Amino acid sequence: MQSRRGCPLDCTFCSTSAIEGRSVRSRSPDRIVKWLAELRETGCRNFNFVDNTFNLPPTYAKDLCRQVIQAELDLNLWCIIYPKWIDTKLVELMRRAGCRQISFGFESGSDRMLRSLNKQFNRQEVSAVSKMFAEAGIERMGFLLLGGPGETKDSVEESLSFADSLKLEALKITVGLRIYPQTPLARTALSEGVLRADEDLLLPRFYLTPELQDWLPVRVATYRTSRPWVS
Predict the structure, then answer these.
(1) pTM value > 0.85
(2) How many domains does the chain have?
(3) Which of 53, 71, 182, 208 is deepest in the core (most CB within 10 A)?
(4) What 8-state DSSP symbol labels residue 210?
């Protein structure tokens, strides 16, 4: 289910704004609930909201949850959240609407790297948001993107330690950042000679800072060994 398109956040590696635009366009919550109700009648109960950021704008997310609750559809919902601009009221509404798990790409546990990726949040905010969902009984799947421009061994270790501190139900780690057209990361890769100007990025290409190319895959593999919830 997709209730919104567009994202104005401009993360350096993300292609959403190039594909969907920067302005957020939302379908009316009553239309979304109508679709859910129609699908519920066929026996469907599990729904994954693929909105790039389910919690933005917060007023819309709360209104949508309220209408899902009011419809009494008895659903299991999954969604993607941006770990900022979230309060306990929204989390509680999401729980009551049937949210069972959230995915959130905090991407790094280093504030320096978060700024490099043009994230609008910091470590402290990620911890606070993660705690809110944990206390509501909603499972959390986090994402780390390691190896981007400016990454160092110290920032990787900081990220891995931070991920441990969150006590997530699941964590996915990507070694290297996929390079998408029309992104700041693509421009960086071009300027550093990682890409050719005529290269077709439909074929996956990844940026991995040269200093970590040998070390990082081994370090992540070692980290995963004793953590079965990490993939």
Answers:
(1) yes
(2) 1
(3) 53
(4) G
